[in-house]
Amino acid sequence: MPQLNAALVPPPAQVVVRFTGDADLSTEPFVADVLAQAAGLGTPQVVVDLGSTRFWDCSCLHALVAFTRELEADGRAGRIVGALPGTRRLIAMANLTGELQLDGVLAGPAGAPVSAARRPVRRSRPAAPVTGDLVAAGHGH
């Protein structure tokens, strides 16, 4: 079974979610949970960094689309950065390019890649509110 991990980079104006590993049907609930935690932080923008995901399938892409729609309905924005060519092709083949805002690699003010401290994400039940510090989590066996 593929392994997928995530980290949230703390906000002030935006939160960054960095996924690492393989995202497929078995990890879709984890992806949706992590995205819900990020949205729960209430920032005007959430950036989802896919630069360290080796594989990303349609089930997880649909979780990204649902997440993006929810943010937009709340007057907020979601961006996808660092998607590898295979993931970009899948987005195009699934006809989701109009649903997801794709950017290049996440960069800081001087153009260097962002290297902010990472805060691992904890798993939570869907109804549980996001409170306190996030702790280590991952998906896989």
Q: H/E series, N to C?
A: EEHEHEHEEE
Please state the overall shape, judged from the principal axes of the Cα atoms.
Answer: globular
Residue-averaged pLDDT: 77
Task: Count all strands and give the number.
Answer: 7
Largest sheet: 7 strands, mixed
**Number of DSSP helical runs:** 3
Radius of gyration: 14 Å
* Helix/strand class: alpha/beta
Q: Tell me the fraction of residues in β-strands, as a range.
A: 25-35%
First and last CA, distance: 6 Å
Roughly what percent helix? 25-40%
Uncertain runs:
105-138
Summary keywords:
single chain; 7-stranded mixed sheet; alpha/beta; 3 helices; 141 residues
Walk me through what this model shows.
By secondary structure, the chain is an alpha/beta fold. Helices cover 27% and strands 28% of the residues. Helix 1 (28-40) runs parallel beside helix 2. The longest helix has 16 residues, at 58-73. The radius of gyration is 14 Å and the shape is globular. The model is unreliable at 105-138 (pLDDT under 50).
Write the SSE topology.
Layout: E1 4-9, E2 14-23, H1 28-40, E3 45-56, H2 58-73, E4 77-81, H3 85-93, E5 102-103, E6 119-120, E7 138-139
Parallel strand pairs: 2-3, 3-4, 4-5
Antiparallel strand pairs: 1-2, 1-6, 1-7
Helix pairs in contact: 1-2
